Amino acid sequence: MPTQTMKAIRLHEFGGPEVLRHEAVAVPEPAPGEVLVRVHAVGLNPPDWYVREGMPGIPPEFRPPFDLPLVPGTDISGVVEATAADVHDFTVGNEVVGLLRFPVVMQSGAYAEYVTAPAADLAPKPPTVDHAHAAGLPMSGLTAWQYLIEVGHDHPSPFQEDRHRPAALNSDTTVLVNGAAGGVGHLALQLAKWKGAHVIAVASGAHETFLRELGADEFIDYTKERPEDVVRDIDLVLDTVGGPTSRRFLPTLKRGGALHPVYFGEFDHEENARLGVTVTGTQVRANGAQLAELGRLLDAGTVRVAIDSTFPLADARAAHERAAQGHIQGKIVLTVA
Predict the structure, then answer these.
(1) What is the structure's pLDDT at 170?
(2) Which end of the chain has fewer CB within 10 Å, C or N?
(3) pLDDT tens-digit profile of 212-227?
(4) Could you please report the per-residue DSSP string of 254-316?
(5) Please, are residues 37 and 134 in contact by the beta-carbon 8 Å criterion?
(6) Do the Cβ atoms of 306 and 329 come closer than 8 Å?
(7) 295 and 170, same structural domain?
(8) What letter does residue 69 receive in the DSSP assignment?
(9) How confident is the model at residue 3 (pLDDT cuts 50, 70, 90)?
């Protein structure tokens, strides 16, 4: 063990960004099946601020228990510092990236200098990508992958009984990505293009150049026109914003089309059947094998992670304040000295 204590971000109460404290805590020890990772960068995700706030918008029956104080965060890029005796896939010195324990544990202690990680949740860090960009990949990349390419697990969504099955994407497919400039959106756009689809990106006008550089075939500035008013005969809508307003995209779909809201809203099964469309979602889950596939695409330059902004670990509060401002282009990342 390299040190007895480390610096980490902890919250002792729920609330705004001001509850995030930079303080000394004990270095964790890897349990069987785990490794200890020296963290170099941490990717921020919406569950980080949902948990920080105490998940007030989640019905009590879906709200997992949290023991305070807790160290937030799930997405890391770093270097293996130590391994449990039963871990053979990784050795000390390996550079790794991972989405840790999600959603079994909503926050896994990633906002820290060291974190323990299940070996099965890790993948090799793409060698041509730095730690900051690698840390932006796990949750957003796996969300896009599990919605568009392969679910990779048989766990039902907590919000619906229907199982999610990704639609086949090819050169005959038209995909609309709402919220295309965000963490999930900009990676989903690139995965859809990788599969040959024609992609319509929806975001505010400030992101048009960025999204066209990523491969968007068409762009809709939602501040000037509503996509549901101007497009029809779409094969697939990936709504990374989701929620109660997601059903507004139903008229854009052709019969046989599908709507995938990342944050599930309220839908009417009878209406969906009448329109001849499918509405399904899933909950992203940690998956080291899928993350390795994404890493190979990143390493080859087929997909890239865009960074909106970076903050030192000690400035996690400022990073959460940036997230609250919205209009994020890519990912917010914490760097660990």
Answers:
(1) 97
(2) C
(3) 999 999 999 999 999 9
(4) EEEEEEEESS-----HHHHHHHT-EE--------HHHHHHHHHHHHHTSS---EEEEEEGGGH
(5) no
(6) yes
(7) no
(8) S
(9) low
Same domain, 177 and 259: yes
- Report the pLDDT value the prediction gives residue 59, as an integer from 0 to 100: 74
Structure tokens at 232: 């029809």
Distance between CA atoms of 190 and 194, rounded to whole angstroms?
6
Alpha helices (runs of H) in 170-276, residue ranges in sequence order? 183-194, 208-213, 227-230, 269-275
pTM greater than 0.90: yes
CA dist 283 and 262 (Å) reads 8
| Residues of the domain holding 105 | 5-142+284-335
Residue in 236, 229, 193 with CA at minimum distance from that of residue 213: 193
The token duo for 192 is 């859809």
Taking the CA atoms of 51, 56, 57 and 63 in sequence, report the sign of the dihedral they define.
positive
pLDDT surpassing 80 at residue 160? no
How high is the pLDDT of residue 1? 44
Query: How many whole angstroms separate alpha carbon 64 and alpha carbon 51?
Result: 10
266-287 tens-digit pLDDT: 888 899 999 999 999 999 999 9
Percent above pLDDT 70 for the chain: 99
DSSP annotation of 252 reads G
pLDDT at residue 212, as a whole number: 98
Do residues 114 and 88 share a domain? yes
Q: How many structural domains are present in the chain?
A: 2
Asked whether 302 and 157 are in contact (CB, 8 A), the reply is no
